[in-house]
Design brief:
The chain has 146 residues and is an alpha+beta fold. The chain is built from four helices and five strands; from the N terminus they run βααααββββ. It has one domain: Thiol Ester Dehydrase, Chain A (Roll), CATH 3.10.129.10.
Length: 146
Amino acid sequence: MSLKRFGDFSVGQTEEFGNYLITEKEIIEFATKYDPHPFHLDAEFAKKTPFGGLCASGWMTCSVMMRMLYDNILQNSTSVGSPGVDSLRWLHPVYVGDHLKASSKVIETRSSKSRPNMGLVRGVIEVTNQDSKPVLSLISLVMFLK
């Protein structure tokens, strides 16, 4: 399999990928270590919040998205990292038992001015649950070798 390089991306290109099951154990483990809000740790407490039940940290949702993105696109590419994201929105809570999938759409490609062997790809990534309800949206910029 050949590696996907900068020149293999074009504006308008879309991909759908991933199928990730969210478990109670993983929500609690992630929250315990990184985002210990009670609505991520205690199902009874969470029932009394606007979430109505135990839900994943938005940062966990970002991590799941990154895993799916890596496994399905970045792993077999010349990606050399990212200078960051332009926007990030958590659109709907992620609950125990949700199955997440993602889609990406390339919205810009440009050669690097300072590094001629590299190009940048800007894309919109959306994560949805099993009901096709959007749970996360972000615009990212990724660097690829030419």
